[in-house]
Amino acid sequence: MANRQIVAMGGGGFLMSGDYDALDNYILSLTRKRRPRVCFIATAGGDNRDNIVKFYEAFPARRAEASHLRLFGVPRTDIRAFLLSQDVIYVSGGNTANMLAVWRVHGVDRVLREAWKRGIVLTGVSAGMLCWFEGGVTDSFGRPLSAIRDGLGLLKGSSCPHYDGETDRRPIYHRLLQRGLPAGVAADDWAAIHYVGTKIQACVSTKPGAGCYRVGIRNGVVREEEMGTRFIGT
After folding, report:
1. How far apart are the two ends of the chain, measured CA to CA in Å?
2. What CATH number is associated with residue 70?
3. Which end of the chain is more exposed for a tag (fewer CB within 10 A), N or C?
4. Domain enclosing residue 116, as ranges
């Protein structure tokens, strides 16, 4: 069976740095290909043109065979074949709830599950982290932050991106856990959690001090465990 890999980024990569980032390099290295095929899905940002341009700038031809999938307007008719031909599928940040709804209309949710089973590396930042889990903390419905509970569920439990990047993320995640949101993981900006199958293989960061955490309830109290994040450079 192919390795099922997900790299869930709390923040970082080209979308936050404006340039190629070591997290992006880490993701490409998982394919073990000199020039992997990388598809960018920018649905969460409404297929924002600026983000798509940043993607192509960050993944020039010498690094990857880059492409993107648009779902607004008239989408392509070969979505399944197109996505299953990739080595990496990279999901942007933005509105997670809207993204999931659009994906389900076009069957992208089912194709992503199939891609994962085939060993295509799935990754993303913010909304592109949240989507792989059962639920998590989102700003999809405005502020204050709230729970989303209908993620793709490839990974069990909940997640929280931008754990150190927004002052209300950590306390609201803790509050939601106390109200019944499943235990899960959190990642700071510039940190990522690498799963092989459904088990954590590694935690990496491109900012000193950025970490990844297991977060849950024990004896009625929120417990947070830092997972030992490896600095991989900038």
Report:
1. 33
2. 3.40.50.880
3. N
4. 5-231
